[in-house]
């Protein structure tokens, strides 16, 4: 069955190739090899992330260029090579395939290189940001399909992301994600500021319907936001711009926890409606950046309920 359908594909492809049609003859032992990147969303998907066209293009073109070069350099007998194909771009799976007519030679060659290139394949689909918070709680795997599963799976590089423990803050609240409906978007963005000396870094608030069983009181109100931020850099933080849903933005002065707490905070007292799609922007004096303030590679943000006993933690990065 499988061989027949491969042969059929080969014939159809050959037919579409027009002028090459006569010269391409797939032997019956043609073998299709696909390299995939697969995304496994968590059961409770607080911050839905899916592959987009850019992720797919980047994955397909990098895999094609790396593997086709190897095959060419080694005098491989590939008929088409790995060809980017938009029809293989799905929200949770992107793939690129090749049909080889000399399976043994090419598979032996590919096996070594697929293992060697695995980190590059992960980088290609994630834009080099495999440890970005958008993949938090997601599975991400580069896999290989080959005829008869002859090729071994590449190593699981994403596991190496690890999770550094969040910075210790002097706080007795429960930081579990999902114990209240509020969460900060996994990516924050830079917006132009009216002052040329500063930049605005904006964090969007998402409100989830699906939350964990929780004993947090008054979760219809988002009382305040706290950022873990280097307090020694305090002078670079100029203001907050708070933009509730359905309200006009207000600018307030930054406030900090006790010396050494490294907590930068703003009172919100937003209802769920006001919090839905709201943004909290931090105005930072250049050349300092939000990421540097946050300690280097991602920001830790806490969203508090009114009695301050619950402060689910979200991480966010540019
Ligand atoms: C934590 O905060 C309490 C009250 O704000 C303070 O008394 C205590 O010294 C702090 N502990 C540390 C380790 O900073
Ligand atoms: C925080 O809340 C979660 C969910 O309700 C609960 O499972 C967990 O035990 C709590 N943690 C602490 C330290 O109270």
UniProtKB/TrEMBL annotation:
<dbReference type="Pfam" id="PF12499">
    <property type="entry name" value="DUF3707"/>
</dbReference>
<feature type="signal peptide">
    <location>
        <begin position="1"/>
        <end position="21"/>
    </location>
</feature>
<feature type="domain" description="Pherophorin">
    <location>
        <begin position="170"/>
        <end position="312"/>
    </location>
</feature>
<keyword id="KW-0732">Signal</keyword>
<protein>
    <recommendedName>
        <fullName>Pherophorin domain-containing protein</fullName>
    </recommendedName>
</protein>
<dbReference type="InterPro" id="IPR024616">
    <property type="entry name" value="Pherophorin"/>
</dbReference>
């Amino acid at each position: 069955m499988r061989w027949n359908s491969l042969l059929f594909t080969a014939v159809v492809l050959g037919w579409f190739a027009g002028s090459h049609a006569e010269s391409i003859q797939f032997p019956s032992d043609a073998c299709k090899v696909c390299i995939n990147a697969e995304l496994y969303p968590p059961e409770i998907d607080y911050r839905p992330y899916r592959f987009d066209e850019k992720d797919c293009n980047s994955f397909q073109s990098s895999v094609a260029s790396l593997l086709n070069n190897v095959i060419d350099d080694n005098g491989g007998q590939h008929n088409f090579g790995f060809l980017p194909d938009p029809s293989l771009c799905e929200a949770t799976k992107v793939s690129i395939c090749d049909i080889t007519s000399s399976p043994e030679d090419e598979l032996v060659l590919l096996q070594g290189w697929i293992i060697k290139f695995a980190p590059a394949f992960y980088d290609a689909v994630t834009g080099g940001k495999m440890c970005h918070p958008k993949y938090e709680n997601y599975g991400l795997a580069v896999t290989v399909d080959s005829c008869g599963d002859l090729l071994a799976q590449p190593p699981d590089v994403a596991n190496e992301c690890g999770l550094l423990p969040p910075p210790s803050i002097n706080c007795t609240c429960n930081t579990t994600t999902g114990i209240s409906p509020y969460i900060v978007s996994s990516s924050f963005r830079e917006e132009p500021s009216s002052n040329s000396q500063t930049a605005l870094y904006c964090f969007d608030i998402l409100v989830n319907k699906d939350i964990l069983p929780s004993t947090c009181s008054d979760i219809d109100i988002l009382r305040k936001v706290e950022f873990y931020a280097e307090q020694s850099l305090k002078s670079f933080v100029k203001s907050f711009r708070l933009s509730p849903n359905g309200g006009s933005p207000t600018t307030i002065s930054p406030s900090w926890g006790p010396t050494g707490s490294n907590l930068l905070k703003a009172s919100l007292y937003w209802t769920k409606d006001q919090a839905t799609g709201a943004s909290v922007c931090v105005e930072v004096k250049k050349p300092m950046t939000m990421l540097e303030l946050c300690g280097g590679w991602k920001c830790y943000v806490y969203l508090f309920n009114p009695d301050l006993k619950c402060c689910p933690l979200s991480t966010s990065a540019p």
